[in-house]
Write a structure and sequence with these properties.
75% of the residues lie in helices and 2% in strands. The protein has a two-stranded antiparallel sheet with strand order 1-2. The protein is mostly helical. The longest helix is centred in the first third of the chain and has 34 residues. Helix 10 runs antiparallel to helix 11 and helix 13 packs across helix 15. About 6% of the residues have low confidence.
Length: 433
């Protein structure tokens, strides 16, 4: 029964860390949805990448030509431009010209002007969407009878110019031609509630995940390092699980394709649209690795102890410890491996946490190696290098000193942490031969 006590004491912290890891997994998707759906710049950038993709652009070209044929009697337009004797050929010509039109539109959509129109259309639609769901509309936005749409008519009008079947097509295009409805007016209240929920969810999940993990580490008295290592593993697992879920979701989306020709476009659309999800999942994995490494570095393993011993002379001097941290911070800010390093407030929080970690490591190594200094470390490194050299000295000896002095210096190197126990015994045995 006595052995059940430690197990019970570990159960609660591990449960909290496990729940925190699950919430971290959910937070990754909430952050992705928040950044993808509620940030106009991210929405527009993603839309631009979609148009730049060959497969997606090809399907969009087909859609635009179908809209042109659905809204305009192309055969009649062609017949008006042909001599009376050739007018019976207008029907076959209109059918053949549809395939040529798709290729022509695809080339058109590669041009900077068309891509600029696409970007502007997406930016306007997203801003209107946010204006409707966040501000309740304005003089230019209807919240009672209007829908939020992505208007592609500007591009469609260019396709008719490229298509070359008559200058009157643009005048005959209906007002709703080539409009993709994003939000119907009767869905406004639901969309407003969803946006508010999504904004709060991303913040709440992150706070709960990190809070539960921190509480678990705090309650793990006597084994906090292991609990911290479990937090790192939990973050890594959450990030990997999110990437696996993305892959499974992509397979499901591709499976919705009615024809095989659409599958590549759907696959590329999913890949581009979830690129921010990959970014969030990768950030969780990176943070998890950092936490796991920190827990390992504070551990009792031979490699961790040797690492701390090697760092101790530098960690004892603030100019080296925090100078190294400043260099790392500058590299991370310039690199921006995670979105947090591109946000000033979040970056400051991460830098503060890194500074706390460095200070904790400094205090730990100062207690473990109180006599560590750079002079002894460099001298020991040179002597060990000389000892390994073929024909070199048997140990850290000096021709001007006697054996007792050499043993005394060897003991000092061991006490300062330059030599570990095994190295000290090996060098001492050489002296006593």
């Amino acid at each position: 029964m006595a052995s059940d006590g430690p197990k019970r004491r570990r159960a609660l912290p591990l449960t909290l860390i496990t729940i925190g890891s699950v919430l971290a997994f959910l937070a990754i998707f909430a952050i992705w949805a928040n950044r993808q759906l509620l940030d106009t710049d991210n929405w527009t950038d993603t839309s631009t990448q979609l148009l730049e993709d060959d497969e997606i652009r090809g399907q969009l070209s087909i859609y635009l030509i179908e809209q042109l044929y659905a809204n305009v009697d192309v055969q009649a337009e062609l017949a008006d431009t042909l001599p009376p004797r050739l007018q019976p050929l207008a029907g076959p010509a209109a059918g053949a010209f549809q395939d040529l039109g798709v290729r022509g539109v695809d080339r058109l959509l590669e041009r900077p002007r068309a891509q600029e129109l696409w970007e502007q259309a997406n930016r306007r639609a997203h801003r209107r969407f946010l204006q409707v769901v966040e501000d309740g509309g304005s003089d230019n936005v209807s919240t009672t009878g209007g829908d939020v749409t992505l208007d592609l008519k500007g591009i469609l009008e260019q396709t008719q110019a490229q298509f070359g079947v008559g200058g009157r097509l643009a005048e005959r295009l209906p007002a709703d031609a080539a409009q993709l409805t994003i939000l119907h007016s009767d869905e406004l209240e639901l969309a407003q509630d969803g946006v508010n929920f999504l904004k709060a969810l991303a913040i709440i999940l992150v706070i709960l995940a990190l809070g539960l993990m921190a509480l678990g580490v705090y309650l793990a008295r006597g084994w906090r390092r292991e609990a911290l290592r479990a937090c790192g593993f939990g973050l890594i697992l959450a990030g990997v699980a999110a990437l696996v879920a993305r892959s499974l979701g992509g397979s499901a989306v591709v499976g919705l394709a009615k024809t095989a020709s659409v599958e590549p476009a759907l696959e590329n659309t999913w890949s581009i649209s979830t690129s921010l999800l990959v970014e969030a999942a990768s950030a969780a994995i990176l943070y998890g690795i950092v936490v796991f490494f920190a827990a390992w570095l504070a551990g009792p393993t031979a490699w961790a102890t040797s690492t701390r011993r090697a760092l101790a002379p530098f960690l004892r001097e603030p100019r080296f410890a925090y100078g190294g941290l400043a260099l790392i911070v500058l590299l991370l800010v310039a690199w921006g491996p995670t979105p947090a390093f591109r946000k000033p407030v979040l970056a400051l929080i991460l830098i503060a946490l890194m500074a706390l970690g460095v200070e904790a490591l400094r205090r730990h190594t100062a207690r473990e190696f109180p006599n560590a200094n750079r002079e002894d470390m460099m001298r020991g490194w040179r002597e060990r290098r000389a000892a390994r050299r073929p024909g070199g000295a048997a140990g850290p000896t000096n021709p001007g000193n006697d054996r007792f002095t050499d043993l005394e210096r060897l003991a000092a190197l061991h006490d300062s942490g330059v030599l570990d126990d095994d190295e000290f015994k090996a060098q001492k045995a050489r002296f006593l031969l």
